[in-house]
Amino acid sequence: MGANSTQALAILLFLAAFVLLAGALAGAGILTGVGAAVLLGVSLYFFRKCKPWEHQND
C-alpha cells in the first residue's frame, strides 16, 4: 500500500465514519447515521481514486 496524502485522508475519513456510526447506534440520532454514510462514501471515493497509483512502478 502506498503512502500518500490522499490515501491518508481516505483512512482518516473511513475511521471517522465508523466513529459516527458507533455514535448513531448508541442513540445519537438519524443525522449522525447519515453523516457516517456520507463520510464512508467520500472515503471510498478517495480509496478508488488512489488505486491506479499503486501499480504505476510495475
What would you report as the Rg, rounded to the nearest angstrom? Answer: 14 Å
Element order, helices and strands? HH
Oligomer class: single chain
Low-confidence stretches: none
Proportion of helical residues? over 70%
Number of β-strand runs: 0
Shape: elongated
| N/C terminus separation | 14 Å
Mean pLDDT across residues? 85
- Relative strand content: under 5%
DSSP helical segment count = 2
Structural class: mainly alpha
* Biggest pleated-sheet summary: none
In short:
This protein is mainly alpha-helical and 58 residues long. Helix content is 84%, strand content 0%.
Description:
The protein is mostly helical and 58 residues long. The protein contains 2 helices and no strands. The longest helix has 25 residues, at 30-54.
List the helices and strands and how they pair.
Blueprint: H1 5-28, H2 30-54
Which characteristics define this entry?
mainly alpha, 2 helices, 58 residues
